[in-house]
Design a protein that fits this description.
Chain lengths: 259, 255, 322
């Protein structure tokens, strides 16, 4: 890699990570809310394990993918709204006046997303293990789970970045947050697809890529090593990331319309 | 008394013009509709869990929770509006002009009731479209609506108190979070009897549990625990009425 | 070939989809080492020109060369030669002053050792050494502007663009920034392109002033020459008895054309006579005066002469420059 490009990526990544860590008011809710919802769902839906064909021993194990998925949404909104603020207050113009490469800026932004995703995954896994989540894929499954979770966060982080670049408004990016929520809930996050009842909801969940991301993560916890679920999970995560990166690059070029 | 009502109608009128004058009034209605669709649609098989007995089906079971969420969050959103009025200084006009300041609270409550009727109706329409079964009679439904309105008044008074104490839009999370917590720490997905562990304990202490359970019994045509539910709801109103008055006094002291 | 660190603009136009032409055929030339003041009210097109000259906004038509580079075809060459502090100090509230310097220096490709030395030197120069380790969130408006200026200078640019650098600052901070800009131009030979809506700022700092209104340059010269063009001073008279204002206006009307005056006063631009003759005429009418003053022409008078409006009044109530 070009050494100056490497320097640019490294300083922009550093800025992104430092900024994220210096805003506990934004980071802490992204750690607390997913865990709260996990606790409520695990408590409230314990009896769902008695449904014939339910694939896990406890609902806690089954629902453990939920906080990882929700944290990806938080990460996307955070990355998007932070970047939109840079656009709003002219900081992007300051950067645009330097010989900075747009690719370095994008890489820097996504480094912040990775840092947040790693913090979230570490916290969720620690809390999960303490409250009794049993990861069937064992010790080796943990880094794979983290990798899928980070890759998912990167994909959604790109979506947040696209929204920021297109709208240039933090408020507008925040207003998309409920849509991300819809994406999570209208998937197989709460019950396996076979138990969704066969109606419209199952049809929506089947075409919703979030279902496959969730099922990939979940397979590591409740099944062990399920090649198909993992292939679909990683496949969708990589596709989402690639499409997001492509979209973000185009949007970045349009926004940084330097001559 | 005349002064009280003139203030009430002035405050309520302005609130309602603001509410219906902007398309964003649909936003508070979107959340309960969303949760209703996600839970009733995605968790329908939970109704097949052994021991889950609810005659009207899972859609109706979830409708009651979504309805109570709509009315409670309607109160919270009124709280946000009050906080906004205080932050912008508009509420000071009310304090200066109102011969009876109790009318300010009553006005906000009245406006909240009107808007919650709108959002509640929207949830109801969506539920009917989704094929909700109603086994209860007209009287039962009247009971459910009555219970929902009392919950809305309680939530509005709670939001009103917080907003008037803090007088800033940053009061928003402090109004919303406790209401959300109460809603989710209740029997959301299954009846109380099917909850286990810590959630069962918390839910049995949660005042909303009695209200939700009775609400569900109304729609199933088998009203149970009606006096307890109404007593609980009116107790919440009484407590939060005092809370709202304390907030008003605090706002008066601060000028 | 030796590069000329000047600015040449020819018939520059920028149109936005909605609204009139923000910049409507501007031509100007700034010599190396010169301080050029671009004076005009909000919405006149000042910032749009700066954005085009700094390559952040492509022009609709026209050409411009900055430091000898074409702003459309040789954008990266332009950017390497210029420093810019744009409207509203764009800083990251969560980074410290020193972290900003390091980020900016790194992106400009300074070597690691040089980054630190250059950063410390500039922070010292703008009086922010002590605050360097503090997050920018806690800086005052003046401190932010000074940091903004230091950041623009990291890579030793030969041309500096300052877009309304003192808007919103208190008089003390404004004066400190003026000293620094004057120092840059006089001591370091930096070419400065400065936009402002403050007459005093343009008068104080600029070697030459371009007055812009509705996207067009309406006058351009040294401040002295522009004022000399107006030539005649004005007389403003305030009667002790407000009821005599009409009589005062009538008397003053004999000496020249009426110009706007403060409340309770009347004023004219002297076309003949001088202050002494005005005093005698008022005395002859038996009007007792509370105040009588002779005003030399200002850049506002120039603006008034060229556009029919006062610059000081026309800035109010508008939000941003287009």
């Amino acid at each position: 890699m070009d050494s100056s490009l490497f320097t640019q990526i490294s300083v922009l990544s550093r800025r992104s990570v430092v900024r994220t860590l210096r805003q506990p008011a934004m980071v802490i809710p992204s750690l607390i809310f997913p865990m709260m919802l996990l606790a409520v769902n695990a408590g409230g839906l314990t009896s769902a394990t008695e449904l014939p064909g339910f694939p896990a021993d406890t609902y806690l194990d089954f629902a453990f993918a939920f906080p990882l998925m929700q944290s990806a949404m938080f990460g996307a909104t955070l990355a998007g709204s932070e970047f939109a603020r840079d656009i709003e207050n002219g900081f992007l113009n300051r950067l645009a006046l330097t010989p900075m490469s747009p690719a370095a800026l994008l890489a820097g932004l996504l480094s912040g997303v990775i840092a947040l995703a790693l913090i979230q995954a570490a916290v969720f896994l620690t809390v999960g293990l303490v409250i009794g989540v049993d990861i069937k894929s064992g010790f080796l499954g943990v880094p794979v789970l983290v990798a899928l979770s980070v890759l998912t966060s990167l994909g959604f982080g790109c979506l947040g970045t696209i929204l920021a670049l297109r709208t240039g408004s933090g408020e507008a990016v925040q207003s998309f947050f409920p849509l991300f929520f819809v994406g999570i809930f209208f998937s197989s996050i709460s019950l396996p697809r076979e138990l969704l009842g066969g109606g419209w909801f199952e049809a929506v969940a089947t075409v919703n890529p979030v279902s496959y991301l969730v099922e990939g993560m979940r397979s590591l916890v409740i099944t062990g090593w399920d090649a198909q679920a993992l292939a679909l999970g990683f496949g969708f995560a990589v596709a989402l990331f690639a499409a997001g990166l492509f979209g973000a690059s185009i949007s970045m070029r349009t926004r940084m319309e330097r001559t | 008394m005349k002064a009280l009502f003139s203030v009430t109608f002035a405050v309520a009128g302005r609130q309602l013009r603001r509410f219906f004058g902007n398309i964003t009034f649909l936003a508070p209605a979107a959340f309960p509709v969303f949760f209703f669709a996600a839970f009733a649609g995605g968790l329908s098989r939970v109704g097949d869990v052994p021991g889950f007995e609810f005659a009207a089906g899972y859609t109706a079971f979830q409708f009651v929770w979504a309805l109570l969420q709509a009315v409670a969050m309607g109160g919270a959103f009124t709280g946000f509006a009050i906080a906004g009025d205080f932050e912008s200084g508009f509420a000071r006009r009310f304090l200066i002009a109102a011969p009876n300041r109790g009318g300010i609270i009553l006005g906000y409550v009245f406006a909240s009731l009107v808007r919650t009727t709108f959002t509640g109706s929207l949830v109801f329409i969506v539920a009917i479209i989704a094929g909700m079964e109603i086994l209860g009679s007209g009287v039962d439904l009247f009971g459910l609506v009555g219970l929902a309105l009392v919950v809305n008044v309680a939530a509005t008074l709670f939001g009103c108190g917080v907003a008037m104490l803090l007088r800033t839009q940053q009061a928003g999370p402090l109004i919303q979070t406790p209401i959300f917590m109460l809603l989710f720490l209740a029997p959301v997905y299954v009846p109380l009897e099917l909850l286990e562990g810590w959630l069962e304990m918390v839910a049995s202490l949660n005042p909303l549990t009695a209200i939700i359970t009775t609400g569900r019994s109304f729609i199933a045509g088998d009203p149970t625990g009606v006096p307890t539910a109404f007593l609980t709801a009116f107790s919440l109103v009484a407590v939060f009425l005092i809370w709202a008055y304390l907030g008003l006094r605090s706002a008066e002291r601060s000028g | 070939m030796e590069r000329s660190y000047g600015i040449e603009v020819e018939n520059l136009v920028r149109e936005f989809k909605k609204g009139p032409r923000a910049v409507d055929g501007v031509s100007l030339s700034v010599s190396p080492g010169e301080v050029y003041g671009f004076l005009g009210p909000n919405g006149a097109g000042k910032s749009t020109i700066v954005l085009m000259l700094t390559t952040l906004l492509p022009p609709t038509s026209g050409t411009a060369r900055v430091a000898g580079f074409d702003i459309v075809k040789e954008g990266s060459g332009v950017r390497a030669s210029i420093g810019a502090a744009l409207q509203e100090a764009a800083l990251d509230p969560f980074l410290t002053g020193r972290e900003h310097m390091n980020l900016q220096a790194s992106l400009h490709g300074l070597a690691r050792k040089e980054r630190k030395v250059r950063g410390d030197e500039l922070l010292e120069r703008v009086g922010l050494s002590e605050a360097a380790a503090r997050r920018v969130r806690g800086y005052s408006g003046g401190m932010k502007r000074r940091l903004d200026l230091a950041l623009a200078l990291v890579h030793r640019p030969k041309i500096l663009f300052l877009d309304e650098p003192t808007t919103g600052l208190d008089p003390q901070s404004r004066s400190a920034l003026w000293d620094e800009v004057a120092h840059l131009a006089r001591e370091d030979g930096v070419t400065v392109f400065l936009t402002t809506q403050y007459l005093e700022e343009a008068d104080m700092l600029a070697d030459r002033v371009g007055i812009i209104d509705e996207g067009r340059i309406v006058a351009e010269d040294t401040p002295e020459a522009l004022k000399a063009e107006i030539g005649r001073p004005s007389v403003e008279a305030t009667p002790a008895d407000f009821g005599k204002l009409d009589a005062v206006s009538k008397v003053l009307g004999r000496f020249g054309e009426a110009v706007p005056a403060s409340s309770g006063s009347a004023a004219v631009r002297l076309e003949h006579g001088d202050l002494a003759t005005v005093v005698r005429a008022l005395d002859a009418e038996g009007i007792e005066m509370a105040n009588l003053q002779l005003n030399s022409p200002t850049l506002d008078d120039v603006f008034l002469e060229k556009t029919g409006r006062s610059l000081e009044g026309s800035s109010d109530g508008e939000e941003s420059d287009g």
